[in-house]
Amino acid sequence: MTKPMNPKCPIHNQRMWRRITQHGALYVCTVDACDILKWGDGDFTTPADTVTRARRHAAHGIFDKLWQDKHMTRGEAYQLLSGHLDKHVKSTHIGLFDVCECEATIAFANMMQKRILLEKFT
């Protein structure tokens, strides 16, 4: 089996360097001052700039509460999100999202949290 190639920086189209950190694999762009990074070796995240990574983090923080607080299963939450975003459930991974998809995820999660609260008190 061949080793997968390092991802390319979407800005500079150059292979990224792989470094092992205490948090796992980290890919960084080879161009000085470029803020494109990718965490992990898996297919569920893409290289992203600082703004996109921050929005992905925010989206996870809000969206994950839907299933972590036992309002629904993780699978149900992602199924609902995939329908809301009009994406196939297998491509509904926040680590693949751009800023607009992250904002839509945050809005969806906030709407669902409000709906859950309304159902709880009615």
N-to-C SSE string, H for helix and E for strand: EEEHHH
Span from first to last CA? Answer: 57 Å
Largest sheet: 3 strands, antiparallel
pLDDT under 50 segments (min length 5)? Answer: none
Helix % is 40-55%
Question: Can you count the helices?
Answer: 3
Shape: elongated
Structural class: mainly alpha
What is the mean pLDDT? 95
> How many distinct beta strands?
3
Number of domains: 2
InterPro entries: DUF3268 (IPR021686)
Pfam family, one: DUF3268
Q: Could you characterize what this model shows?
A:
The protein has 122 residues and is mainly alpha-helical. It folds into 2 domains: 1-47, no CATH class; 50-120. The chain is built from 3 helices and 3 strands; from the N terminus they run βββααα. It has helices spanning 50-68, 74-85, 99-120, and strands at residues 17-21, 24-28, 37-39. A 3-stranded antiparallel sheet has the order 1-2-3, with no helix packed on it. Strand 2 (24-28) and strand 3 form a beta hairpin. Helix 1 (50-68) crosses helix 2. It is elongated, with a radius of gyration of 17 Å. The termini are far apart. The model has no long low-confidence stretch (mean pLDDT 95).
